[in-house]
Amino acid sequence: MKVLVLNCGSSSVKFQVIETSLEMIEANSDVTVARGLVEKIGLSDSRLSMDTPGRKPYQEIGEILEHRAAVERVLKVLAHPEYGVLKDVKEIEAVGHRVVHGGEKFASSVQITPEVEAMIEECVVLAPLHNPHNLRGIIAARSLLSDVPQFAVFDTAFHQSMPPKAFIYGLPYDLYTHHAIRRYGFHGTSHRYVSLRAAKLLGRKLEEMRIITCHLGNGCSMAAIDRGHSVDTTMGFTPLEGLLMGTRSGDMDAAILPWVMAMEELTLSQLNAMLNKHSGLYGISGVSSDMREIEKAVGSGNHRAQLAFDIFCYRIRKYIGGYAAAMNGIDAVVFTGGIGENSDLVREASTVGLDFLGLDLDPDVNRKAPRGQEMIVSKASSRSAIIIIPTNEERVIARDVVRVLGGVMPSFSVPSNEAPR
Ligand code: AMP
User: Fold this and answer.
1) Which superfamily is assigned to 2-184+396-417 in CATH?
2) pLDDT of 319 above 70
3) 30 is catalytic
4) Is the shortest distance between the CB of 338 and ligand 1 below 6 Å?
């Protein structure tokens, strides 16, 4: 079946049409029929671009004022007689939406009903910058494709299996019971997908493996996946916590915040900008938030770029050690995301010398790893594998749609791991 996957941001809509089925999932042979992006929604020069395998990229520029109009344009282009990939939009049998925050309400993907939509709305308070746009996409698709079933796939759902000891902060407990302040974790679709693929690649059962997944892109997070269940992850109440990122600080002493606010006379929004936009690789190096630029600067002897690179990799090593302890050992470490998939230097600096954990990288294979391919980069003799798995969040969304429709995934599962109220 053809599934339309929508990922709606504040001024953008990413879309893909994926041909998939239970059999294609099993054979890992689902096909991306088209992928594209609407950018600058709300401006007069909005841009819609679409890539279709084997064809010239398509692009149009023109005013698109809101999300409904954007989804309408996407459907028109998908079914366009010349550049389109569908004879008719009726070929779309289901729509899968990326939804950032499912709070404690959703532990798996779900078919969207009015009740589910209301619950997503209730999670807006936890992700005010994301969930409202995701909801706009849901409402738009429902009004334009009224008979087509819609599904929500949450960034947070996979981590709902974490035990309370991993998700409760050392803060007054009322903050949890009154305001739902706890670790949620993000990038769940990616962590779930790459752990599954890693087990397949090794020819082992996921249910028997302890896997650490490292999603390293502009945003970075790691997860400890014990026999298929996320038991800990580095991102927290928001996607700020944990690893160093392009422009986000990751872990730090929270007492710095009131101190800096007082000393620099910062407003709350300036503080937020400092933590989310001016920190991380960019804040430390002063060069760039982009790992390629950092690596170039390191190559030309820039000390602050070197420091940013070292901090980035040191944190990954620390969490590998921590998660190995959390799971009583590891069978595999998986790298994914733009940096994880492409930077042999980061993979090497993050894992070299961890032989006491059974991790023995093959430097040659790691350096020569071809782009975009699943690949084992540890030595054959390594007790634990080091693996590259290109992530594909849209594919997971399309697959979840098929699984929920096919009844092989529960369509509504509430977390079993709540802390006492
Ligand atoms: P993503 O958010 O997954 O698209 O990843 C973006 C990050 O991947 C940016 O920091 C890029 O610099 C980084 N990246 C992409 N290609 C490479 C590469 N060849 N070497 C190092 N980093 C890369």
Assistant:
1) ATPase, nucleotide binding domain (3.30.420.40)
2) yes
3) no
4) yes
